[in-house]
Amino acid sequence: ITTDEGFETAVSDKLIRYGGPWAKVQIKSAHGSWLYDPAGKKILDFTSGQMSSVLGHSHPELVEVIKKQCENLMHLNLVMVSDPVLDCATAVTSMLPKGLDKCLFVSTGSETNEVAIKMAKVYTGKFEVIALSAGYHGMTHGSAAATFSYGRHAAGPSVPGTFILPTPYPYRSPFRHPDGTYDWKSELDYGFALIDRQSSGSLACLVIEGIVSTGGILPLPDGYLKAIKEECVKRGMLLIIDEAQTGFGRTGSNFAFEYYGVVPDILTLSKTLGAGLPLGAVVTSTEIERVWHEKRGYYGTTHMNDPLVCAVGAKVVEIIKRDNMAEQSATKGKFMKTAFEKLKEKYSVIGEVRGRGLMIGVEFVQDPVSKVPAENLGQAIAARCMETGLSCNIVQLPGMGGSFRMAPPLTITEDEILEGVQIFDEAIA
Ligand code: PMP
Protein backbone atom coordinates (compact mmCIF):
# COMPACT_ATOMS: atom_id res chain seq x y z
CA ILE A 1 0.00 0.00 0.00
CA THR A 2 1.46 3.34 -0.95
CA THR A 3 0.50 6.81 0.21
CA ASP A 4 1.48 10.26 -1.03
CA GLU A 5 4.08 12.10 1.03
CA GLY A 6 2.47 13.92 3.92
CA PHE A 7 -0.78 11.94 3.71
CA GLU A 8 -0.72 10.62 7.27
CA THR A 9 0.40 13.96 8.73
CA ALA A 10 -2.40 15.70 6.85
CA VAL A 11 -4.93 13.20 8.23
CA SER A 12 -3.89 13.86 11.82
CA ASP A 13 -3.55 17.62 11.29
CA LYS A 14 -6.80 18.23 9.47
CA LEU A 15 -9.45 15.73 10.51
CA ILE A 16 -11.52 15.41 13.67
CA ARG A 17 -11.12 11.87 15.03
CA TYR A 18 -14.42 10.01 14.80
CA GLY A 19 -13.83 7.63 17.72
CA GLY A 20 -12.24 4.70 15.87
CA PRO A 21 -8.98 4.12 13.97
CA TRP A 22 -8.21 5.34 10.45
CA ALA A 23 -6.99 2.73 7.98
CA LYS A 24 -3.64 4.06 6.81
CA VAL A 25 -4.66 3.61 3.23
CA GLN A 26 -5.03 6.31 0.63
CA ILE A 27 -7.48 5.47 -2.12
CA LYS A 28 -7.27 7.46 -5.34
CA SER A 29 -9.99 5.78 -7.38
CA ALA A 30 -12.44 2.89 -7.39
CA HIS A 31 -14.12 0.98 -10.20
CA GLY A 32 -16.32 -2.08 -10.06
CA SER A 33 -15.14 -4.29 -7.19
CA TRP A 34 -11.69 -2.66 -7.00
CA LEU A 35 -10.02 0.18 -5.12
CA TYR A 36 -6.73 1.70 -6.32
CA ASP A 37 -3.98 3.35 -4.26
CA PRO A 38 -1.79 6.23 -5.59
CA ALA A 39 0.67 3.77 -7.19
CA GLY A 40 -2.20 1.96 -8.94
CA LYS A 41 -2.10 -1.05 -6.65
CA LYS A 42 -5.43 -2.92 -6.64
CA ILE A 43 -7.43 -3.77 -3.52
CA LEU A 44 -10.54 -5.94 -3.82
CA ASP A 45 -13.47 -4.43 -1.95
CA PHE A 46 -15.36 -7.01 0.12
CA THR A 47 -17.29 -4.30 2.00
CA SER A 48 -18.89 -2.31 -0.86
CA GLY A 49 -17.46 0.87 0.66
CA GLN A 50 -19.48 1.22 3.83
CA MET A 51 -21.82 -1.68 2.81
CA SER A 52 -23.33 0.65 0.22
CA SER A 53 -21.90 0.30 -3.31
CA VAL A 54 -24.08 -2.66 -4.31
CA LEU A 55 -23.59 -1.97 -8.02
CA GLY A 56 -19.83 -1.63 -7.67
CA HIS A 57 -17.85 1.60 -7.68
CA SER A 58 -18.59 4.21 -10.36
CA HIS A 59 -21.20 2.11 -12.18
CA PRO A 60 -21.30 3.69 -15.68
CA GLU A 61 -25.09 4.06 -15.73
CA LEU A 62 -25.04 5.84 -12.36
CA VAL A 63 -22.23 8.12 -13.52
CA GLU A 64 -24.33 8.99 -16.58
CA VAL A 65 -27.43 9.80 -14.49
CA ILE A 66 -25.38 11.94 -12.11
CA LYS A 67 -23.85 13.91 -14.99
CA LYS A 68 -27.21 14.48 -16.69
CA GLN A 69 -29.03 15.39 -13.50
CA CYS A 70 -26.27 17.81 -12.43
CA GLU A 71 -26.69 19.72 -15.66
CA ASN A 72 -30.41 20.21 -14.97
CA LEU A 73 -31.29 20.21 -11.30
CA MET A 74 -29.35 19.29 -8.18
CA HIS A 75 -31.07 20.85 -5.21
CA LEU A 76 -34.23 22.74 -4.33
CA ASN A 77 -36.01 24.52 -1.52
CA LEU A 78 -37.63 21.77 0.56
CA VAL A 79 -41.19 22.88 -0.20
CA MET A 80 -40.58 22.12 -3.89
CA VAL A 81 -40.93 18.65 -5.40
CA SER A 82 -39.31 17.54 -8.64
CA ASP A 83 -39.81 14.59 -11.01
CA PRO A 84 -36.76 12.58 -9.86
CA VAL A 85 -38.24 12.50 -6.34
CA LEU A 86 -41.56 11.16 -7.62
CA ASP A 87 -39.71 8.72 -9.91
CA CYS A 88 -37.69 7.46 -6.96
CA ALA A 89 -40.81 7.05 -4.80
CA THR A 90 -42.57 5.19 -7.64
CA ALA A 91 -39.53 2.96 -8.19
CA VAL A 92 -39.04 2.13 -4.49
CA THR A 93 -42.73 1.42 -3.78
CA SER A 94 -42.99 -0.69 -6.98
CA MET A 95 -40.80 -3.23 -5.17
CA LEU A 96 -42.82 -3.18 -1.96
CA PRO A 97 -46.14 -4.68 -0.83
CA LYS A 98 -49.26 -2.66 -0.04
CA GLY A 99 -48.87 -0.99 3.33
CA LEU A 100 -45.53 0.47 2.28
CA ASP A 101 -46.93 3.15 0.03
CA LYS A 102 -45.39 6.53 0.84
CA CYS A 103 -41.80 7.74 0.95
CA LEU A 104 -39.74 10.53 2.45
CA PHE A 105 -36.18 10.86 1.20
CA VAL A 106 -33.28 11.97 3.40
CA SER A 107 -29.49 11.69 3.26
CA THR A 108 -28.34 8.95 5.65
CA GLY A 109 -29.38 5.83 7.51
CA SER A 110 -29.19 7.64 10.84
CA GLU A 111 -31.60 10.20 9.53
CA THR A 112 -34.07 7.58 8.24
CA ASN A 113 -34.28 6.02 11.70
CA GLU A 114 -34.51 9.44 13.32
CA VAL A 115 -37.57 10.12 11.16
CA ALA A 116 -39.06 6.63 11.67
CA ILE A 117 -38.77 6.77 15.47
CA LYS A 118 -40.22 10.26 15.55
CA MET A 119 -43.07 9.13 13.28
CA ALA A 120 -43.82 6.16 15.57
CA LYS A 121 -43.85 8.46 18.61
CA VAL A 122 -46.23 10.91 16.93
CA TYR A 123 -48.47 8.10 15.62
CA THR A 124 -48.75 6.20 18.93
CA GLY A 125 -48.55 9.21 21.24
CA LYS A 126 -45.97 7.22 23.23
CA PHE A 127 -42.22 7.63 23.62
CA GLU A 128 -40.38 4.43 24.54
CA VAL A 129 -38.19 2.57 22.03
CA ILE A 130 -36.90 -1.03 21.96
CA ALA A 131 -33.86 -2.21 19.99
CA LEU A 132 -31.52 -5.21 19.95
CA SER A 133 -28.40 -5.32 22.10
CA ALA A 134 -26.13 -5.67 19.04
CA GLY A 135 -28.21 -3.55 16.67
CA TYR A 136 -26.95 -0.48 14.85
CA HIS A 137 -29.32 2.23 13.68
CA GLY A 138 -27.22 5.37 13.45
CA MET A 139 -25.13 8.02 15.14
CA THR A 140 -27.50 10.98 15.40
CA HIS A 141 -28.99 11.41 18.85
CA GLY A 142 -32.28 9.49 18.51
CA SER A 143 -30.96 6.75 16.22
CA ALA A 144 -27.86 6.38 18.42
CA ALA A 145 -30.14 5.93 21.43
CA ALA A 146 -31.34 2.76 19.70
CA THR A 147 -27.78 1.68 18.82
CA PHE A 148 -26.82 -0.51 21.73
CA SER A 149 -23.99 -2.20 19.83
CA TYR A 150 -21.86 0.81 20.74
CA GLY A 151 -23.35 1.19 24.21
CA ARG A 152 -24.61 4.43 25.67
CA HIS A 153 -21.60 6.45 24.60
CA ALA A 154 -22.90 6.47 21.03
CA ALA A 155 -25.81 8.67 22.10
CA GLY A 156 -23.86 10.70 24.63
CA PRO A 157 -25.36 11.21 28.10
CA SER A 158 -28.46 9.11 28.69
CA VAL A 159 -31.56 9.16 26.53
CA PRO A 160 -34.55 8.05 28.62
CA GLY A 161 -37.01 5.36 27.52
CA THR A 162 -34.87 3.10 25.36
CA PHE A 163 -34.74 -0.61 26.17
CA ILE A 164 -32.63 -3.56 25.07
CA LEU A 165 -33.79 -6.93 23.79
CA PRO A 166 -31.08 -9.62 23.63
CA THR A 167 -29.81 -10.15 20.09
CA PRO A 168 -30.68 -13.64 18.82
CA TYR A 169 -27.27 -15.25 18.46
CA PRO A 170 -27.62 -19.03 18.11
CA TYR A 171 -23.86 -19.64 18.14
CA ARG A 172 -23.34 -18.10 21.59
CA SER A 173 -26.72 -17.62 23.23
CA PRO A 174 -27.17 -18.91 26.81
CA PHE A 175 -30.53 -20.18 25.49
CA ARG A 176 -28.71 -22.63 23.24
CA HIS A 177 -29.14 -26.19 24.49
CA PRO A 178 -26.22 -28.64 24.65
CA ASP A 179 -27.69 -30.48 21.62
CA GLY A 180 -27.28 -27.27 19.57
CA THR A 181 -30.98 -26.31 19.40
CA TYR A 182 -31.69 -22.71 20.21
CA ASP A 183 -34.69 -21.65 22.30
CA TRP A 184 -35.01 -18.12 20.98
CA LYS A 185 -38.66 -18.01 22.08
CA SER A 186 -37.75 -18.26 25.79
CA GLU A 187 -35.00 -15.69 25.28
CA LEU A 188 -37.47 -13.33 23.64
CA ASP A 189 -40.13 -13.86 26.33
CA TYR A 190 -37.53 -13.21 29.00
CA GLY A 191 -36.40 -10.03 27.21
CA PHE A 192 -39.95 -8.70 26.95
CA ALA A 193 -40.69 -9.62 30.58
CA LEU A 194 -37.76 -7.43 31.66
CA ILE A 195 -38.79 -4.59 29.38
CA ASP A 196 -42.37 -4.69 30.64
CA ARG A 197 -41.04 -4.28 34.20
CA GLN A 198 -39.07 -1.18 33.16
CA SER A 199 -41.56 0.39 30.79
CA SER A 200 -43.96 3.06 31.97
CA GLY A 201 -46.49 1.61 29.51
CA SER A 202 -45.45 4.02 26.78
CA LEU A 203 -43.81 1.72 24.23
CA ALA A 204 -43.93 3.41 20.81
CA CYS A 205 -41.80 1.20 18.57
CA LEU A 206 -39.26 -1.56 18.14
CA VAL A 207 -36.42 -1.08 15.64
CA ILE A 208 -34.65 -4.07 14.14
CA GLU A 209 -32.33 -4.87 11.22
CA GLY A 210 -33.09 -7.49 8.57
CA ILE A 211 -29.83 -9.22 9.49
CA VAL A 212 -27.98 -7.90 12.54
CA SER A 213 -24.84 -6.66 10.85
CA THR A 214 -22.74 -5.03 13.55
CA GLY A 215 -23.42 -8.10 15.72
CA GLY A 216 -21.41 -10.08 13.15
CA ILE A 217 -23.98 -10.86 10.39
CA LEU A 218 -26.66 -12.59 12.44
CA PRO A 219 -29.73 -13.61 10.42
CA LEU A 220 -32.90 -13.70 12.55
CA PRO A 221 -34.04 -17.24 13.45
CA ASP A 222 -37.07 -18.58 11.53
CA GLY A 223 -40.26 -17.32 13.17
CA TYR A 224 -38.45 -14.68 15.24
CA LEU A 225 -39.65 -11.62 13.33
CA LYS A 226 -43.24 -12.90 13.28
CA ALA A 227 -43.06 -13.28 17.08
CA ILE A 228 -41.64 -9.74 17.35
CA LYS A 229 -44.50 -8.41 15.25
CA GLU A 230 -47.05 -10.14 17.54
CA GLU A 231 -45.40 -8.57 20.60
CA CYS A 232 -45.57 -5.16 18.92
CA VAL A 233 -49.27 -5.57 18.14
CA LYS A 234 -49.95 -6.68 21.73
CA ARG A 235 -48.35 -3.50 23.09
CA GLY A 236 -49.67 -1.10 20.46
CA MET A 237 -46.15 -0.43 19.14
CA LEU A 238 -45.00 0.05 15.57
CA LEU A 239 -42.44 -2.28 14.01
CA ILE A 240 -39.62 -0.45 12.21
CA ILE A 241 -37.42 -2.65 10.04
CA ASP A 242 -34.08 -1.07 9.15
CA GLU A 243 -32.86 -2.42 5.83
CA ALA A 244 -29.95 -0.01 5.41
CA GLN A 245 -27.67 -2.92 4.53
CA THR A 246 -30.12 -5.70 3.64
CA GLY A 247 -32.33 -3.78 1.21
CA PHE A 248 -32.22 -4.10 -2.58
CA GLY A 249 -31.02 -7.64 -3.13
CA ARG A 250 -28.13 -7.89 -0.70
CA THR A 251 -29.47 -11.00 1.07
CA GLY A 252 -30.76 -12.86 -2.00
CA SER A 253 -34.28 -11.43 -1.81
CA ASN A 254 -35.18 -7.84 -2.66
CA PHE A 255 -35.68 -7.14 1.05
CA ALA A 256 -34.92 -9.27 4.10
CA PHE A 257 -38.45 -8.81 5.49
CA GLU A 258 -39.82 -10.81 2.52
CA TYR A 259 -37.80 -13.80 3.65
CA TYR A 260 -39.30 -13.63 7.14
CA GLY A 261 -42.86 -13.02 5.86
CA VAL A 262 -43.42 -9.88 7.96
CA VAL A 263 -44.28 -6.43 6.60
CA PRO A 264 -43.05 -3.58 8.83
CA ASP A 265 -45.15 -0.56 9.78
CA ILE A 266 -42.19 1.60 8.78
CA LEU A 267 -39.32 0.50 6.55
CA THR A 268 -36.05 2.41 6.53
CA LEU A 269 -33.72 2.15 3.53
CA SER A 270 -30.38 3.86 2.99
CA LYS A 271 -26.83 2.72 2.07
CA THR A 272 -27.82 0.33 -0.78
CA LEU A 273 -30.50 2.68 -2.17
CA GLY A 274 -27.96 5.38 -3.02
CA ALA A 275 -25.40 2.67 -3.93
CA GLY A 276 -22.63 4.99 -2.71
CA LEU A 277 -24.40 8.35 -2.68
CA PRO A 278 -26.08 9.80 0.43
CA LEU A 279 -29.71 8.77 0.06
CA GLY A 280 -32.14 7.25 2.52
CA ALA A 281 -35.88 6.55 2.39
CA VAL A 282 -38.51 6.20 5.07
CA VAL A 283 -41.46 4.21 3.72
CA THR A 284 -44.78 3.72 5.49
CA SER A 285 -48.50 3.14 5.02
CA THR A 286 -51.04 5.67 3.82
CA GLU A 287 -52.74 5.40 7.23
CA ILE A 288 -49.63 6.08 9.33
CA GLU A 289 -48.73 8.97 7.04
CA ARG A 290 -52.27 10.39 7.42
CA VAL A 291 -52.12 10.29 11.24
CA TRP A 292 -48.56 11.72 11.23
CA HIS A 293 -49.82 14.62 9.15
CA GLU A 294 -53.01 15.16 11.19
CA LYS A 295 -51.04 15.18 14.43
CA ARG A 296 -48.75 17.82 12.93
CA GLY A 297 -45.72 15.53 12.59
CA TYR A 298 -42.86 17.58 11.17
CA TYR A 299 -39.62 16.66 9.48
CA GLY A 300 -37.95 18.96 6.99
CA THR A 301 -34.22 19.16 6.39
CA THR A 302 -32.05 20.90 3.83
CA HIS A 303 -31.40 17.85 1.66
CA MET A 304 -34.79 16.18 2.06
CA ASN A 305 -36.14 14.99 -1.31
CA ASP A 306 -33.10 16.31 -3.22
CA PRO A 307 -33.42 15.71 -6.99
CA LEU A 308 -29.80 14.69 -7.71
CA VAL A 309 -29.63 11.76 -5.29
CA CYS A 310 -33.24 10.74 -5.97
CA ALA A 311 -32.43 10.47 -9.70
CA VAL A 312 -29.63 8.10 -8.70
CA GLY A 313 -31.96 6.15 -6.38
CA ALA A 314 -34.52 5.67 -9.17
CA LYS A 315 -31.76 4.35 -11.45
CA VAL A 316 -30.38 2.04 -8.76
CA VAL A 317 -33.83 0.48 -8.32
CA GLU A 318 -34.24 0.14 -12.10
CA ILE A 319 -30.91 -1.70 -12.39
CA ILE A 320 -31.57 -3.89 -9.33
CA LYS A 321 -34.86 -5.01 -10.90
CA ARG A 322 -33.66 -5.26 -14.50
CA ASP A 323 -30.51 -7.25 -13.72
CA ASN A 324 -32.20 -9.51 -11.15
CA MET A 325 -29.64 -8.48 -8.57
CA ALA A 326 -31.43 -10.38 -5.77
CA GLU A 327 -31.12 -13.59 -7.76
CA GLN A 328 -27.49 -12.84 -8.60
CA SER A 329 -26.82 -12.20 -4.94
CA ALA A 330 -28.44 -15.52 -3.96
CA THR A 331 -26.36 -17.49 -6.50
CA LYS A 332 -23.05 -15.72 -5.91
CA GLY A 333 -23.73 -15.75 -2.17
CA LYS A 334 -24.04 -19.54 -2.17
CA PHE A 335 -20.78 -19.76 -4.13
CA MET A 336 -19.01 -17.44 -1.69
CA LYS A 337 -20.42 -19.14 1.40
CA THR A 338 -19.28 -22.55 0.14
CA ALA A 339 -15.77 -21.13 -0.34
CA PHE A 340 -15.72 -19.83 3.25
CA GLU A 341 -17.13 -23.12 4.55
CA LYS A 342 -14.18 -24.88 2.90
CA LEU A 343 -11.86 -22.56 4.84
CA LYS A 344 -13.75 -23.47 8.02
CA GLU A 345 -12.87 -27.11 7.40
CA LYS A 346 -9.24 -26.12 6.91
CA TYR A 347 -8.82 -23.77 9.89
CA SER A 348 -10.17 -24.58 13.36
CA VAL A 349 -10.06 -20.87 14.26
CA ILE A 350 -13.12 -20.29 12.07
CA GLY A 351 -16.02 -20.98 14.42
CA GLU A 352 -18.96 -20.27 12.16
CA VAL A 353 -19.85 -19.14 8.65
CA ARG A 354 -23.35 -17.67 8.36
CA GLY A 355 -25.51 -15.25 6.43
CA ARG A 356 -27.64 -15.08 3.32
CA GLY A 357 -26.95 -13.88 -0.18
CA LEU A 358 -23.84 -11.72 -0.42
CA MET A 359 -23.92 -10.83 3.27
CA ILE A 360 -21.72 -13.38 5.00
CA GLY A 361 -20.29 -13.49 8.49
CA VAL A 362 -17.11 -15.43 9.31
CA GLU A 363 -16.55 -15.69 13.05
CA PHE A 364 -13.09 -16.36 14.48
CA VAL A 365 -12.53 -18.26 17.74
CA GLN A 366 -9.47 -19.41 19.64
CA ASP A 367 -10.77 -22.96 19.26
CA PRO A 368 -14.12 -24.44 18.26
CA VAL A 369 -14.79 -26.01 21.68
CA SER A 370 -14.23 -23.04 23.99
CA LYS A 371 -15.42 -20.57 21.31
CA VAL A 372 -13.40 -17.86 23.06
CA PRO A 373 -13.30 -14.95 20.59
CA ALA A 374 -10.00 -14.62 18.72
CA GLU A 375 -10.00 -10.84 18.70
CA ASN A 376 -6.35 -10.16 17.94
CA LEU A 377 -6.20 -12.86 15.28
CA GLY A 378 -9.13 -11.32 13.40
CA GLN A 379 -7.54 -7.86 13.50
CA ALA A 380 -4.23 -9.29 12.30
CA ILE A 381 -5.93 -11.12 9.43
CA ALA A 382 -7.80 -7.98 8.40
CA ALA A 383 -4.54 -6.00 8.40
CA ARG A 384 -2.72 -8.69 6.42
CA CYS A 385 -5.57 -8.83 3.87
CA MET A 386 -5.32 -5.07 3.35
CA GLU A 387 -1.57 -5.38 2.67
CA THR A 388 -2.10 -8.19 0.19
CA GLY A 389 -5.04 -6.65 -1.65
CA LEU A 390 -8.35 -7.34 0.09
CA SER A 391 -10.42 -4.83 2.04
CA CYS A 392 -12.60 -6.61 4.57
CA ASN A 393 -14.26 -5.57 7.78
CA ILE A 394 -14.19 -7.17 11.21
CA VAL A 395 -16.56 -6.33 14.06
CA GLN A 396 -15.89 -7.17 17.67
CA LEU A 397 -18.47 -6.30 20.32
CA PRO A 398 -17.98 -6.97 24.03
CA GLY A 399 -19.15 -10.49 24.90
CA MET A 400 -19.54 -11.41 21.26
CA GLY A 401 -17.22 -13.03 18.76
CA GLY A 402 -14.88 -11.33 16.32
CA SER A 403 -16.62 -11.65 12.97
CA PHE A 404 -15.72 -10.62 9.46
CA ARG A 405 -18.55 -9.04 7.50
CA MET A 406 -18.21 -10.00 3.87
CA ALA A 407 -20.49 -7.89 1.67
CA PRO A 408 -18.95 -7.26 -1.76
CA PRO A 409 -20.76 -5.43 -4.56
CA LEU A 410 -23.57 -7.59 -6.00
CA THR A 411 -21.89 -7.10 -9.39
CA ILE A 412 -18.78 -9.02 -8.28
CA THR A 413 -17.76 -12.00 -10.44
CA GLU A 414 -17.14 -15.54 -9.22
CA ASP A 415 -13.46 -15.17 -10.22
CA GLU A 416 -13.17 -12.06 -8.07
CA ILE A 417 -14.84 -13.90 -5.18
CA LEU A 418 -12.28 -16.71 -5.48
CA GLU A 419 -9.44 -14.18 -5.67
CA GLY A 420 -10.64 -12.53 -2.45
CA VAL A 421 -11.16 -15.81 -0.63
CA GLN A 422 -7.65 -16.89 -1.62
CA ILE A 423 -6.16 -13.69 -0.17
CA PHE A 424 -8.16 -14.35 2.99
CA ASP A 425 -6.94 -17.98 3.08
CA GLU A 426 -3.29 -16.88 2.78
CA ALA A 427 -3.77 -14.25 5.46
CA ILE A 428 -5.10 -16.86 7.91
CA ALA A 429 -2.27 -19.21 7.03
N1 PMP B 1 -28.80 1.26 10.09
C1 PMP B 1 -27.95 0.27 9.81
C2 PMP B 1 -28.46 -1.14 9.82
C3 PMP B 1 -26.62 0.55 9.50
O1 PMP B 1 -25.76 -0.44 9.22
C4 PMP B 1 -26.20 1.89 9.49
C5 PMP B 1 -24.77 2.27 9.13
N2 PMP B 1 -23.79 1.42 9.56
C6 PMP B 1 -27.12 2.89 9.80
C7 PMP B 1 -28.42 2.54 10.08
C8 PMP B 1 -26.71 4.33 9.83
O2 PMP B 1 -26.50 4.79 8.56
P1 PMP B 1 -25.61 6.09 8.29
O3 PMP B 1 -24.23 5.76 8.70
O4 PMP B 1 -25.79 6.32 6.81
O5 PMP B 1 -26.19 7.19 9.08
UniProtKB/TrEMBL annotation:
It comes from the Eukaryota. The keyword Transcription does not apply. Keywords: Pyridoxal phosphate, Pyruvate. Gene3D superfamilies: Aspartate Aminotransferase, domain 1, Type I PLP-dependent aspartate aminotransferase-like (Major domain). Pfam families: Aminotran_3. The keyword tRNA-binding does not apply. GO terms for cellular component: mitochondrion. Coiled coil: none annotated. One of its GO terms (molecular function) is transaminase activity. InterPro entries: Aminotrans_3 (IPR005814), Aminotrans_3_PPA_site (IPR049704), PyrdxlP-dep_Trfase (IPR015424), PyrdxlP-dep_Trfase_major (IPR015421), PyrdxlP-dep_Trfase_small (IPR015422). Belongs to the class-III pyridoxal-phosphate-dependent aminotransferase family. This is 2,2-dialkylglycine decarboxylase (Pyruvate). It comes from Capronia coronata CBS 617.96.
